[in-house]
Design goal:
single chain, 184 residues, mainly alpha, Cytochrome Bc1 Complex, Chain D, domain 2, binds heme C
């Protein structure tokens, strides 16, 4: 009887430790592989069932994000000019909105453009100097044109539509106008 209990205890200990390995990077014995390994297709997996042969489908033309954030202007200077003529800033200059614009500017733009828009952010030396945002050209750019530049980029400035929501882009413009009002 005692011997039997000993064998049972040894078997239990074996079962409990057989899933372990001394080296953490090696998975041990997989008890239930169906729960361990992902069964569904990954987004970029080939898929024999779907049109196009890939799991992630291309959205139909004209699809807009659920946030309603489509920016209906393509890249390039002509589209930027058009945005400047057609769009106006929907945001108001209340304290909370201005504070948000300042926060986004400082988090996203200041690294290149500098805290006061002088083109002297910490990245300078490793990236070409951006133009001053308080200079005559930036002052005369309409709000919609600036939102286009943020959304689609300009020259070597990369687009920021993926990082900054459309509403925040308009708020950043309000902050820019404040910087332009401050530094003549
Ligand atoms: C990676 C660095 C970088 C970041 C980040 C960046 N910019 Fe720029 N920006 C530039 C450069 C460089 C230019 C000049 C591009 C060109 O015309 O070749 C520029 C141009 C501009 C212009 C046009 C200025 C003019 O006189 O033509 C505006 C307006 C502007 N940026 C606003 C912003 C705002 C607002 C943000 C934040 C949402 C931002 N930028 C983020 C580098 C950056």
């Amino acid at each position: 009887m005692k011997g039997l209990r000993l064998v049972a205890a040894a078997l239990l200990a074996l079962a409990m430790t057989s899933g372990c390995r001394a080296r953490g990077e090696q998975p041990g014995f997989v008890v239930m592989p169906g729960m361990y390994y992902s069964v569904p297709y990954d987004s970029y997996d080939p898929n024999p069932v779907l049109r196009g042969g890939q799991t992630l489908l291309t959205p139909p033309e004209g699809t807009v994000p659920m946030t309603g954030e489509a920016f209906a202007y393509g890249p390039g200077p002509e589209e930027a000019l058009r945005a400047g003529v057609e769009l106006s800033n929907p945001e108001t200059t209340d304290a909370a909105t201005l504070a948000r614009g300042k926060q986004v500017y400082e988090n996203v733009c200041a690294v290149c453009h500098g805290p006061a828009g002088q083109g002297d952010g910490p990245i300078i030396g490793r990236f070409p100097n951006p133009p001053s945002l308080t200079a005559a050209r930036a002052r005369t750019l309409p709000d919609g044109h600036i939102v286009h530049i943020i959304s689609r980029g300009q020259g070597i400035m990369p687009p920021h539509a993926a990082q900054v929501t459309l509403a925040d882009r308009w708020r950043v413009v309000l902050h820019l106008r404040q910087l332009q009002g401050g530094a003549q």
